Amino acid sequence: MPQSFMPNGSSTLTTNPFDDDKLREECGVFGIFGSPDATAHTALGLHALQHRGQEAAGITSLNGQEFTTRRVLGQVADNFTSQEVIDSLPGNSAIGHVRYSTTGETILRNCQPLFAEFSSGGFAVAHNGNLTNAAHLKKQLISRGSIFQSTSDTEVILHLIATSHFRGLMDRFVDALRQLEGAYSLVTLTREGLIGVRDPLGVRPLVLGKLDKAYIMCSETCALDIIGAEYVRDVEPGEVVIVTDEGIKSIKPFPETKPRPCIFEHVYFARPDSFMDSLSVYDVRKRIGAELARENTVDADLVIPVPDSGTPAAIGFAQESGIPFELGIIRNHYVGRTFIEPSDQIRHFGVKLKHNANKWFIEGKKIVLVDDSIVRGTTSLKIVNMMREAGAAEVHMRIASPPTAHSCFYGVDTPERSKLLAGRMDVDAMCEYIKADSLSFLSIDGLYRAVNHKDGRNNSCPAHCDACFTGDYPTFLTDQSEEEEKANQLNLIASTGS
Amino acid sequence: MPQSFMPNGSSTLTTNPFDDDKLREECGVFGIFGSPDATAHTALGLHALQHRGQEAAGITSLNGQEFTTRRVLGQVADNFTSQEVIDSLPGNSAIGHVRYSTTGETILRNCQPLFAEFSSGGFAVAHNGNLTNAAHLKKQLISRGSIFQSTSDTEVILHLIATSHFRGLMDRFVDALRQLEGAYSLVTLTREGLIGVRDPLGVRPLVLGKLDKAYIMCSETCALDIIGAEYVRDVEPGEVVIVTDEGIKSIKPFPETKPRPCIFEHVYFARPDSFMDSLSVYDVRKRIGAELARENTVDADLVIPVPDSGTPAAIGFAQESGIPFELGIIRNHYVGRTFIEPSDQIRHFGVKLKHNANKWFIEGKKIVLVDDSIVRGTTSLKIVNMMREAGAAEVHMRIASPPTAHSCFYGVDTPERSKLLAGRMDVDAMCEYIKADSLSFLSIDGLYRAVNHKDGRNNSCPAHCDACFTGDYPTFLTDQSEEEEKANQLNLIASTGS
Amino acid sequence: MPQSFMPNGSSTLTTNPFDDDKLREECGVFGIFGSPDATAHTALGLHALQHRGQEAAGITSLNGQEFTTRRVLGQVADNFTSQEVIDSLPGNSAIGHVRYSTTGETILRNCQPLFAEFSSGGFAVAHNGNLTNAAHLKKQLISRGSIFQSTSDTEVILHLIATSHFRGLMDRFVDALRQLEGAYSLVTLTREGLIGVRDPLGVRPLVLGKLDKAYIMCSETCALDIIGAEYVRDVEPGEVVIVTDEGIKSIKPFPETKPRPCIFEHVYFARPDSFMDSLSVYDVRKRIGAELARENTVDADLVIPVPDSGTPAAIGFAQESGIPFELGIIRNHYVGRTFIEPSDQIRHFGVKLKHNANKWFIEGKKIVLVDDSIVRGTTSLKIVNMMREAGAAEVHMRIASPPTAHSCFYGVDTPERSKLLAGRMDVDAMCEYIKADSLSFLSIDGLYRAVNHKDGRNNSCPAHCDACFTGDYPTFLTDQSEEEEKANQLNLIASTGS
Amino acid sequence: MPQSFMPNGSSTLTTNPFDDDKLREECGVFGIFGSPDATAHTALGLHALQHRGQEAAGITSLNGQEFTTRRVLGQVADNFTSQEVIDSLPGNSAIGHVRYSTTGETILRNCQPLFAEFSSGGFAVAHNGNLTNAAHLKKQLISRGSIFQSTSDTEVILHLIATSHFRGLMDRFVDALRQLEGAYSLVTLTREGLIGVRDPLGVRPLVLGKLDKAYIMCSETCALDIIGAEYVRDVEPGEVVIVTDEGIKSIKPFPETKPRPCIFEHVYFARPDSFMDSLSVYDVRKRIGAELARENTVDADLVIPVPDSGTPAAIGFAQESGIPFELGIIRNHYVGRTFIEPSDQIRHFGVKLKHNANKWFIEGKKIVLVDDSIVRGTTSLKIVNMMREAGAAEVHMRIASPPTAHSCFYGVDTPERSKLLAGRMDVDAMCEYIKADSLSFLSIDGLYRAVNHKDGRNNSCPAHCDACFTGDYPTFLTDQSEEEEKANQLNLIASTGS
Question: Which cofactors does the annotated protein need, by name (chains A, B, C, D) (predicted)?
Fold first, then answer.
């Protein structure tokens, strides 16, 4: 692990490590300019975006000339809502960040916003996404004399700005952006104003809102709703939006490309009350459920959502199929953040800590279980088993997306391919593995239809990034390639040597 | 405030004080005898009962001769699941308690289980309910030389046992029970075994379960499910169940009475996956929704539950009325435990911290909102307003219970009558207050029908305690009467004097 | 270990467990009546008494009718000096307590002041000393229905008052006191006033002071100095001093006895700036050093104190003998409170964590080391060794008290007799054990001479409790006798059986 | 205040802010190479150096290729002595740092050791001293693209290395050192070995020791004693000592200069059991006391040290003058680390929290008080007053150094000149201010005599840095000059404008 002259943070704050079988969005961002309550609004916005990252949160505010930053391990509601904290982050503009991260990396020095004092002025940044050439750039920067403080790819951006040969801060920033490869939606704060950037493909979302005279840029519209702000429009892929005292302006410093926003945001990441790509996420999920019902008819007594993410698709499924929708699995809302190092006796009960079967309704019934996706399959296995123990006559699993067979390199925490159930086996084997009576996934065309592409996926020019389903990555993967090349060379040497 | 020679605990751990508009069950209990994993099972059981009390938790285990107790402010999952803690509570039997308490009283010395070392042996107790003559008994006990350590009514039971003129511990315990008035479901642990008690009216629930050779007594069946135990039966009102190495036996030391279990458990307190009075709580709630739809027809486009407690009734309402069920309000699952002393700017956003309207579906629609009850009305007002801001054409509020017009003295935290909306105004005024287009409550007969009393409430001999709706209290209220008498005397003196 | 219905405290706060080789006073008390700054004065007084107990501290204040208590594990300066804490303990009178306790018992529920609400009113008490019949009384009280919350002997006093057959609180208190055996200096607070009590033998100290209109009673005069109060006189053995709004009065409810104040207070416990039995503690210690020099002449180059407790005796020794006094051992003032569970590598360095030899002065010299006492001998061995490693030519150990060969049952933490070096071997063997060139202790007569009894100890009627040196205990030891009797019976049974 | 992308630490950990009237050494350093117990030895060494910095501590260990760092606010004994912590810092070599810092800056990101991963390898550094051109260099580095994470001058060294045009790490390091101005004793750790550096003037100390095969470099010899290591020699001014697996070597990369080690180390900073410049610190202080007695005779009854730093000089004074040495002021050893935000009532008692007069000895006596130095004079005033209240007939203050009239820029925390009592007034006025009967300081020549320069100070070529007494600074003060110039220009503009 890289070392730094920064304090070590705790790495114990993880959520239910023995039970999480979902892909995880790694970040959410929020920025506001021109509000007397900038910090409170940012805290509220981050709270609404908490589902995009639950392990760390941070806010940088700007009071005229002075930046103030507070970053913590933990959730927004627990750390950023007291009067004392709000008052400690003064100013009319602020940016914020929520973060999920893989175990071992949840340390404070990787938390955002990051800040640097350049000769051209102070600069704070919050980043949602992942750069696919960060390691490559970092190596170059270190060889030229840059000292890195974190293992975060975001710090690369700061050093690119610091060492740029351009003059003004804005030119240096654009110079830095042009060297990046991968996915990034950024909000940044300088003494001049708030800047929002979405990468040329627009992989991760970023929306623009307005509240009185203040402008907001944030990951999802639900963060606008909570503060009563109006949704203006999506920041466009490849767009740089600059908000200053003079008003708002927009530049497009990148060569034009066909956008490829992430389709999985619709399936699982985004909150159902958000709008994304001009669509209601909840409505898309219901339509996914309807597509699923059409693609895979089943003779059953009840449609049961795997709570809570499967619920909208289950409602859509039930409405399309006419099979009654029932809450057959009851969720315990008190499953905390912690369960740190649970005892063996506790760990043994796994899925039951979160869910219980509603026996009365299940006993003797043929049921359709609707879930959004299958990652490792461990939870699906337990849920199917729970239904059988509750007396279900038949258990038919329906998944509201295609098989997740490939890793994401754009800011989503995915297990290695070898741990993805769909990376290891075909649908029949998966059905057997989870011990369901039948298992069906939504087709990739069905998914595109649900997000308003009537003819399904245009394979020659797909409208979304769907790499996790198709393996079709829309950017170079420089770091990944260099690593593989290095591994190959080692293998070559090893095999030559033997 | 009474003072004690015990350490003061913190009183800051409250859940969203600015946003809670629900009645709160004050406690849940769990006891197990004869399990090699007694403490882990108790922790899991309490976790499943966490909805009955979120502010404090405690477990006492018994390892042959030695009792060990651990009590904390906070939730079970955060405090009782590590191997270290499980190992620190050794033994084959254990009892546990979760607790909610009113602000200012959340101090550790009021937490349970309580323990006393009598000359007749050690005795631990966990209590769900509330005694209505505790103050009266306490005064007598102090005058005879007892020293109280807590403000908890449960401590009265310990001192009654300690000072009883009977000989054996069991006889002393029964002697103590006979002096109690009010509601109590108890689990106690002695060196002989586990004892469960339900008061003669059976106001609060208590069920009996079995896992291999171990017996369990706990508040709800969901706590049996989580450990895979079998539900045997309810402990009967007035029954004392004793589990020892010799097996299980039952005595009924009280004069026979007609039971009056709390009907509000069905409406709100119990978990929907529990069985109560031999009924599925989820099914009762769906039938309540159906009754509600039958009693108050409405012309609407959507049925929307107020999440999460209104959901089963909303499903029942939708199925009965044929109006589609939709998730029109999205809940933020990250509303933490804390929000301690939120800033004014944060507090201002009130209900939005927890809920957001699903605008796409609401705009232009006539909607039926289904909630379980109205307490102060503050949340209802905000929710109706949220629907209007999201563009609802009409908002019809339907409540899955009769108006809550009276305080509970049996272990439920109720505001003073003057703060209950239904204690202050009639239904029309309430409708106007919450700014709905229409407002209807379920009738008391409709509620009884939903819990399987086809002819509604038998007013001469009601089958449940329904005092919060009817003001018909099934026991004397000794402490309440003595306080009122005292107040009257003071008033008399005051008015005579003037 | 007895169990209670009280929260468990932490038991980790101990001071250098691997290095403490001193007897420890178990408590200090302070009480004040009639001061607008009662709590601040109590905090300051306890701070001055911190050497009498470093592990826990507590204050109870009385504001007219209401008592407030705060008890913590830790030191006064760290817990009772902020404005917030001072303000949280309002009132014109207060009592406080500092406590040392043996490992495993340092739990909050044993901390003081203890408080009880009697039918005759509220009562707080802080206790320095130890009752020798507490277990005996406790057993009786439990059999009559009292419930104990702590393992502290002080709680016995509360239950004796609560169950007394007398009427007024004062009569009940005296009734309780008359049943006590052992050592106790008490300060208590009731709604009527402040009461100070010293047991008939006056084993532990208690002094009376005055500051403007306020009266103070506390363990040592240094606690008067810190708040600028005037020292009035010692509370007399067997005296009960009562301070109320009406003024101060004194009663003597016990049969007259010859006092036996603890002589070890002069040797080690009391602060050198205190007056005790009308003598300057520093001056007594210097005179002890002079006696020591007279009793045991030695040919040496330097007199070196074992810091810090040996310093006054070393100065006296140097002045009497004419051998120069030098700081040959330098103390590290940063040896904290903690060193909790030190690693083996750290533990290995033992005495060096606290002390270092001043080599320059020691090399090649014949030195006299002066220490106050030897308990286990482990530190003496290390110090002698440290001197040899620093090059000392000869090391002569001189101890400013007689050999400590017996346990104390009056409020001093002593190891079992078998762990006292002087309980296991004679002076020659001790000298060999600690590897000194010579070892001498002060004679018991020399010690009495230093505390102003010119003819030494009057063996037929000694003026002090000196049981730790002589084994001559001035009270019955009821609990001790009953335990031994029980052990003997068990042995009898065992030997008969075999 | 400069901002960074690093987490903010707490700034509340200060020691008795209302009572500290001493200059404070800002740091101590320790490094070891080739010991199986490197981390434990470093922890022990830092513990012995705790007097050089009590607010923060840190250790970096190196286990073959991997560096591990732990830094905390707080003391060594409380944070670095458990087996768990020792085990978390694996390796055969380690460096450590203790730190004092001015209020507002005590934040974790300024704590040391600092670490950077260069292209030429990992590099950890701990620094005692202060650079007088750090701001100047930092500005240049930022303009070239370096990003600073801390406000510590030490980080400048890292960036100078990172951006050096030389190739190997050692050459880059020397290149960096040559650009530094001011005082620095450094220990650094690379994958090749341990490097110790002392600036050309040798302002701050650094000594070399040996334990079996391991080499140690640290601030004072007392840190060698605690681990049983042998003192080899002082690292020479301008020397770079390199310890690797190949052994130890030394280079001198700077132009030769006459050394000027800090003379105040002898007066106050160093521990009395250390050797410094080949002299026993304790012996020097006794000789200072003797010089003081010779320079300023006084007719008195007692010599009383102001504890604890005045004690050796007082012993020397007493031995020289023949006036008896007595402990007239008793120190309370429990004055904690905290007293954070003390209440007004507590603050009021100021010096009494730490000290009490030993009245018995003082009453009616003419006393000589011996202290090491006077900074602001606030404590001296209180101590003199305390002596008068205890009944002293005359109070003669003798100071074991010349008047401290100038700020230190070499790593000692000094108040601004205007707050130094000797910066504001002459000796007579100072005597009046502290209300003593007489006041004398040691002459600068007397001080030099005591440190073995028989002829006193050689004014044309002084052997020590004595700038705090003389204002004769041995280096340029670039940052100070640039600031003054800037201030002058502003004044010029202001006065021209008016």
Answer: [4Fe-4S] cluster; Mg(2+)
Provide, rounded to the nearest whole percent, the portion of chain D with pLDDT above 70. 92
> Least CB-CB distance to D147: which of A70, A142, A158?
A158
The pLDDT of residue D11 is above 60: no
Least confident of B434-443, B479-488, C387-396, D361-370: B479-488
Under a CB-based contact definition with an 8 Å cutoff, are residues B186 and B152 in contact?
Answer: no
Confidence (pLDDT) at B488? 87
Using a CB–CB cutoff of 8 Å, tell me whether C10 touches chain B: no
- Per the CB < 8 Å rule, is D147 touching A122? no
> Is the distance from CB of A443 to CB of A292 less than 8 angstroms?
no
Beta bridge partners, A250, equal A241
DSSP track, B379-435: HHHHHHHHHHHTT-SEEEEEESS----S---SSEE---GGGSHHHH--HHHHHHHHT
Residue C497 confidence (pLDDT): 54
CB interface of D with A, residues 96-155, below 8 Å: 108-109, 111, 113-119, 122, 124, 142-150, 155
Distance CA B194, CA B196 (A): 7
Q: Which residue of C has its CA nearest to B109?
A: C6
Residue type, C113: P
Tell me, what's the pLDDT at D340? 54
Better-predicted residue by pLDDT, A147 or B413? A147
Taking CA atoms, C27 is separated from B77, B370, C55, C367, D318, in Å, by 39, 63, 10, 36, 37
Q: Which two tokens stand for residue C101?
A: 């306790």
Sign of the alpha-carbon torsion through B353, B358, B364, B366: negative
User: For residue B38, what are the CA distances in angstroms to B31, D71, D251?
Assistant: 9, 42, 69
Cα torsion angle, A268, A269, A274, A275, sign: negative
When pLDDT is cut at 50, 70 and 90, the band that residue D100 belongs to is confident
Provide the pLDDT for residue C107. 65
SS3 C353: helix
* Domains along chain A with CATH numbers: 24-261 (3.60.20.10), 283-469 (3.40.50.2020)
Residue A111 designated active-site: no
Regarding beta strands C394-399 and C366-371, do their DSSP bridges make them parallel or antiparallel, or are they unpaired? parallel
Residue B228 pLDDT > 60, yes or no?
yes
A117 class by beta-carbon count within 10 Å (0-12 exposed, 13-18 middle, 19+ buried): middle
Read off the amino acid at residue D159: H
Segment B482-487 mean pLDDT: 89
CA B475/CA B202 separation, integer angstroms: 12
Q: What is the dihedral of CA A100, A102, A107, A110, to 10 degrees?
A: -70
Strand partners, C377: none
The stretch B103-116 carries a mean pLDDT of: 72
Distance between CA atoms of residues D448 and D462, nearest Å: 9
Give the integer Cα–Cα distance in Å for A291 and B334. 31
In the structure, do chain C and chain D come into contact, i.e. share 3 or more CB pairs under 8 Å?
Answer: yes
Interface of D with C in 222-281 (CB under 8 A): 222, 225-227, 271-273, 275, 280
- By the CB < 8 Å criterion, does C335 face chain D? yes
Helix/strand/coil for A140: helix
Q: Which residues neighbour B458 within 8 Å (Cβ) at sequence distance 6 or greater?
A: none
Encoding tokens for residue D168? Answer: 């190997």
CA separation, residue B191 to residues B64, B65, B121, B195, C150 (Å): 7, 6, 7, 11, 20
Assess whether pLDDT exceeds 50 at residue B105: no
Q: Tell me the C-alpha to C-alpha distance, in Å, between residue C58 and each of B37, B267, C110, D349.
A: 39, 47, 11, 20
| B101-128 as b/e: b if 16+ CB within 10 A | beeeebbbbbbbbbbbbbebebbbbbbb
CB D91 within 8 A of CB D68: yes
- Asked if the model's pLDDT at residue A1 lies above 90, the reply is no
